[in-house]
């Protein structure tokens, strides 16, 4: 039997040109490196413990009793949509109709993809805060739009947004602002004053806004304030979040968005041709999770704050310049005090040097030089793991 070979019709590459620059994600590369070397993986942002047992049991019951084992409703099961709307009202005083203003997605990543595919046309410009989560650039490219980065720059021990730079980035072609707060990877939480200015700019220039708020319950200093609550913003904002980060079930891939009916309808039109539906039984479990008492959310935040401090102190002792995050579960460091200049080379060599894996921030930048010496570390791990990682890093 003749072996099959790939069809060859021309010199044209198989991967379309919009995705050609992206290739394999840095997360896959560094996680594979961690596995190959037996290193502690502080690269990819997933916990090493599961979320509440009662929520896992709720998922098990759903499977065993036939809840969600077949296709759930396209917008998401009613119980979850109602719980999402109640969550927005409970924590932020934002009222949404669960029937027309809530859409359940396969994680926040699909919510971002569906939003950008639905709302953008080729030639549109999208402003995103740099450094940005790598799916942003890929989704903007798939939509045929152009990304315009506005860089968060080191300012003291944090990263700051230059509002003048943001305003200057808006052109007649700007269609949408893509914001992430709390911000991955820098840990910056935009202030009420910054959000007020962003809202005023969006209203003035009639811009749509997509906000990625998956770390909304991981703010250690101050509080998270959704942009949709500012004057003139509810009708132009798609607010995205998910269960993965808040409840430590990242593999369940249950995300959602809230927005006015016209925006939800537009995004759903794209979403239905991506996954159509997903995570049926898990949707029922997350509906229960969103109703957990305040004590859960407070304990979760306090636990991660303590872990942040363990790793941050260890990184300081190892000689890094540390930007202690206000939110998320990532710490950004600068490797310059160690005599290093290339974060990518540093991260690739780190497992052999001391048995720890991290992520080079330069992959989150269009301007690679802006993040060349920055490295990101995840602290959503067990305390003994973080303590061991800190000890290993002191070898540097």
Q: Which key phrases capture this entry?
A:
396 residues, alpha/beta, seven-stranded mixed sheet, four-stranded antiparallel sheet, 16% strand
Strand arrangement within the widest β-sheet reads 2-10-9-8-7-3-4
The level of helicity is 25-40%
Mean pLDDT: 95
What general outline do the C-alpha atoms trace?
globular
Distance between the termini: 56 Å
Derived from helix and strand composition plus strand pairing, the structural class reads: alpha/beta
Oligomer type: single chain
Number of E-type strands: 15
Order of helices and strands: HEHHEHEHEEEHEHEEHEHHHEEHEEEH
- Which residue ranges are poorly predicted, with pLDDT under 50 across at least 5 consecutive positions? none
Query: How many alpha or pi helices?
Result: 13
> Compute the gyration radius: what is it?
21 Å
Q: Beta-strand level of the residues, as a percent range?
A: 15-25%
The biggest beta sheet is recorded as: 7 strands, mixed
Question: How is this structure best described in words?
Answer:
With 396 residues, the protein is α/β, with parallel strands linked by helices. The protein is 39% helix and 16% strand. The protein has helices at 26-37, 53-64, 78-92, 107-119, 134-142, 163-169, 192-204, 243-247, 261-271, 280-289, 294-318, 343-354, 383-393; strands spanning 40-41, 102-105, 125-130, 146-151, 153-155, 158-160, 174-180, 208-212, 237-242, 255-258, 321-323, 330-334, 356-357, 359-360, 374-378. Helix 7 links the parallel strand 7 and strand 8. Helix 2 (53-64) packs antiparallel against helix 10 (280-289), helix 4 (107-119) crosses helix 9 and helix 11 packs parallel to helix 13 (383-393).
